Amino acid sequence: MIGLLILFLSAFLPPLIYVVWIRNTEKYEREPWHAIFLAFLWGATIAVVMSLILEIIFDVSLYMSIGDYNITAFLMVVIVAPVVEEFSKPLALGLKRVRKEINELEDGMIYGAAAGLGFSATENLFYEAGFLSEGLMLFLLFVAIRTIGGCLLHASATALTGYGYGRKIMGDKEGYLLHYFGLAISVHAFYNFLASLELAGGIVSIVLALSFAMLCIRYIRKRIRKMDEEGKIRN
Prior knowledge:
Layout: H1 2-23, H2 33-44, H3 46-66, H4 69-88, H5 96-99, H6 107-129, H7 136-169, H8 176-196, H9 203-234
Helix pairs in contact: 1-6, 1-7, 2-6, 3-4, 4-8, 6-7, 7-8, 7-9, 8-9
């Protein structure tokens, strides 16, 4: 029971703290908690199930076509997973209670990040469960990597699609949704590529991936603050 409690806390508490952190990046007209956590819940449940089903389908199809496990695994990590996951997570912004709260450019970023963090919480749960029996130090190390890398990556990537979606529903017809969706996929794919490299036994790869995730979230929060200030001036 204690082990299960530790597992759930280590998986869900960091993403929830990040949700508060990103939501509070706005100083003016902060988003309501009910809509924030609805987006988070979508990411943690429906988006995970949808992604899992699609990834299984693509995994089987690719392996049957290619016949090489290593190539299939690489394509799944670097191409399929980013596309599938960055498609399923931001669908949270289409929920009626979330959509009606998007009335500023930065709002889509915030709800996208919340959905991404919900996804990362459940993903943490799955991955970290396999490390509980590997010893406390290894478990804590993996939790730290997931807390920094996985959480910040999912938040940042889905925030980009959220921004494009927000521009679309606010009347922008210039194709920004597809542009930022493609950018989200690219960011996710590059992170996965870095993490999958075997530089210096994987240590350098992990450091590079974590550094990239931190740079991404720094950029997202900087954009939110800037648009928030500009919105206050206009109003």
